[in-house]
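Weekly modeling sync, notes
Attendees: S.R. (lead), two postdocs, one rotation student

Agenda item 3: backlog of single-chain predictions. S.R. asked that every request posted to the team notebook include the full sequence so nobody has to chase files. The rotation student volunteered to paste the first one in as an example of the format we agreed on. Action items at the bottom.

Example entry:
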Amino acid sequence: MNTVTAQAPRTLIADDQPDVLAALRLLLKGAGFQTEAADSPAAVLKAIEQERFDLVLMDLNYARDTTSGKEGLDLISRIQALDDELPIVVMTAWATVDLAVESMRLGVRDFVQKPWENSRLLRKLRTHIEQGQARRRRHDREHQLKVELNEAREIQRGLMPRRMPHLTGFNLASAWQPAHDVSGDYLAAFKLNESHAALCVADVAGKGFPAALLMSNMQAALTSFASENFAPGELCSKLNRIMCGNTPLRKFITCFYGDLDVSNRKLKFTNAGHNPPMLMRANGECIRLDEGGPVIGAFCESRYNQQEIQLREGDKLLLFTDGVTEAREASGEEFGEHRLQECLRSYRGSNAAELRTKILSEVNQFCAGDFEDDATLMVVITE
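Predicted structure, as returned to the notebook:
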């Protein structure tokens, strides 16, 4: 394969005059360009549909309309509809300079007057080809990044529970809403055995891809430790030691982890620096679950206390990340924990999915749907 030929810029020359086409092809070939000729708008469009070019050098007037340039202006729009990154340079006579200016308003990169000066024409073509190739590379990188982010989001979505486990005597629902393509939030609810289930919500300091990578690392470690039936305090201690070796400077993870004894309706938990979940009793009393220790990933020797609490019929337990309470309205005021608590208190039903939707609806209305941070929550209602 001829490497020089493969790398030579591909230029489509469009003109209805055979002698002009021949002269331009000869000039460009001698300067190292690959060329293809088209003698009508239809031929131009067909060539662009079939191949990828680095530049189009085109006349504005064709046999059907040799004076107004309308056919050429229409062709410019149709080329851009096929390939909006393709640089277009138009050729025009002295008498139609105004037409060339009009074409540049449509997005043409430059124009060349007939008769042309060879060296000046080649300089212009090389400049616009280089700029066009740079735009294509940037566009291709952006497209590839978007594809990768979409894939990453789907992978991360697969780490989240597709459905809540069925736990006798409890009704569960959850929501995970990334502020960007991927999230630093995590939630999980899964059975440890026939009588116990794990409840977890966590949040990495920061947003986007770095936070998502760190969270996926934590999720793998947590799932592994949970399968060994460690008590919440011991599990978080082990998790912290692992994550201290994987967490960059100035990054950390907040985490709430609970072991729910389904048959006895008891929740044993530890809180590693996370927003304390709200346990709303049927009588309107709100208990905050804050017993535990420091954030995960910051201090390797951290220890975590744990607490056990009895759940009662009608209790509503809400686990959440700060993206819920820190959602802001236009004035900058946050939704806050007080509003969240009142939303929880005012709900008199027993359907966790209904309560989840109510909370999200109120927060979304408050901030007009403009979430600055990932928002995640889990609702557990004791039946």
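Discussion: group reviewed the output briefly. Residues 1-6 have pLDDT under 50 and may be disordered.
Action items: rotation student to repeat for the remaining queue; S.R. to check formatting next week.
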